[in-house]
Amino acid sequence: MAVTVDLEKCDGSAVCLTACAFNAIDLLGGKAVVYENCTDCDACVRACPTHAIVSATAGSATGASCLVVDVDGRSGIVEKVSRAGTAAALEVRRMRVSDGDLRAAACAIVDDARDCRLVVLPHAPATVAIAALAAHGLGAATGFGCVDIAFDATGALRVRRPRYGGIVAADARFGERCVVATLYPRLVRPFERSAHADGESSVPIGDAPPRPLSLARTLVVCGDDLSAELRDVADAIAHCFDAALADELALPGLALAPDLCLAIGAEGSPETNAAIRGARVVVALVEREGDAIAQAADYVLVGDVHENARALLAALKS
Amino acid sequence: MRVVACVAAVPKPAAVKWDRFRGLLDTQDAEPVLNPADRNALELAARLADPHVGPDRSSPSTFTLISAGFDAGAALREGAAFGATRLIALDDLGLADADENGIAAALAAAISHIGGADAVFCGAATSSYGSGAVGGLIAAHLNAHVVAAVVNVARCEAGIQADRLSGRAVLRRVIAPPVVIVASAYGVQVRAIAPMTALRAGRKALETLSLADLNIAAPLPASGAVEIGLSPTRGKRAGETFAGDSAVGAAQSLVGALRERQAI
């Protein structure tokens, strides 16, 4: 933690609380205090209207680092990038931007990433545009739509990207230049932001249409006779992955190729098995090992489906 | 309103296969078709270029389609049915190995070459390469605003009104031109094209430009990545079973296995 608070200057405005993406700041007795889970992203330093929060690293020459960009607090990439950065002895920093004004978000990244070896954003339509603008501003190399990212033994960045709808993956290697990459998020934080959070002149006009199953990277398939309570658990698991939720009955005739398919209480009719045949990894929660879906799955969790689904949700959240 | 849509031809997605015997991607039987996601961009472009809608009905609109690289003509002929008034193919050997950075630089130069645009439309991603970055890169070259995941557009007094997906909501925003609009991969109601319209549109003349016409010096900008191989993503099923007295223990073992497989 390299952030300190000048208590005399702090006026208790709580602007820093809003700016902090990691809940690392609180107000005690009307003054800001910074907890140990501070990631030194310096968002509070920039936000503080009275300049009461000071970064000990500000102005100092930092070594090469790795910047993970949260977009509206929704990431799901931090663990993988941190692992890659730490293995390459890079300092891993985090920052948060909004997807309201993409050019402004890119400018903020360019300002913050001058010394960076790697800048990574979660892969989504708006973040890809932000990454493209930021890469242009930094004169950086680009790696869009990665599913895996790591530094090899020689210190070169290696990425893996799906091609042709994911039926093949292309491995690529980068040189010494700074790389701006987007990485497909896996486990994501529940989407809690309000529609007004982008600070722009955007006005909410309705709900988004459901994402078609054919475009889902993660799919949760529910059996036809799930109880309402189990369906809620399935919905919560789908929410963890930002996944599409489908009934087994809705699948016949489809050919789906998600990265991960979780079948909860589904029996595995021939139509269902045919529909999910293209999935990279299939997980089935079944009562009996002999169920047809278990034969088509990579990983099978056998036992009481309700109990197993709740245990899986808890394990995913932890 | 000067409207430009950038489209791409891709090998017909359903016909692309992984040849496991030769260890190659087999695209031989895949005829070039208009990239499926570009239909959404064309629909939005056609709505914005429609002279009968919007506050400035008296001012004429232009609707230009530009395509670069692999079989540009196929994409343009298919896309012309959306009512484009001008079709431009960028045809140059220098584009053969170009990645999204090179293609975006060429498209941006072509847009400048024809006198600029108020709105440039791009698809969410190509079914072959799949990065979806061309729109953002064009905006960087043209120094234009960019809006992504757009499901509807309309002209208004202050410029262009764009409805975009943001999480579970649709947000409306008004932007002053020039702007690059990246269409959403879903949520756009695409018009049906009558066969006769498609046939007539396919006969429209193509203009061909080379990189020299655009004053672009080789080599084109590139991502900086060196591709070191392709591999199939779907392998044999692992077939592991997790069961036991404790549901919690079995679930944790499963999550561990999924992490190891890089599935979560």
Radius of gyration of chain B: 22 Å
> What is the element string of chain A, with H for helices and E for strands?
EHEEHEEHEHEHEEEEEEEHEEHEHEH
In which order are the strands of the major sheet of chain B placed?
11-10-9-12-8-1-6-7-13
Count the strands of chain B?
Answer: 15
Q: Rounded to an integer, what's the Rg of chain A over CA atoms?
A: 22 Å
Structural class of chain A: alpha/beta
| Total count of strands of chain A | 18
Measured distance between first and last alpha carbons of chain B? 46 Å
Explain what this protein looks like in three dimensions.
The complex is a heterodimer of chains A (318) and B (264). Chain A is of the alpha/beta class and 318 residues long. Helix content of chain A is 26%, strand content 29%. In chain A, helix 3 (78-87) links the parallel strand 5 and strand 6 (91-97). Chain B contains 6 helices and 15 strands. Chain B has helices at residues 38-49, 72-79, 100-113, 134-142, 195-201, 247-260, and strands at residues 2-7, 9-11, 17-19, 24-26, 32-34, 62-68, 86-90, 119-122, 145-156, 159-166, 169-175, 179-183, 206-209, 225-232, 240-242. In chain B, the strands form 3 sheets. Chain B has a 9-stranded mixed sheet with strand order 11-10-9-12-8-1-6-7-13, sandwiched between helices. The model of chain B has no long low-confidence stretch (mean pLDDT 89). Chains A and B meet through helix 5, strand 8, strand 10, strand 11 and strand 13 of A and helix 3, helix 4, strand 9, strand 10 and strand 11 of B.
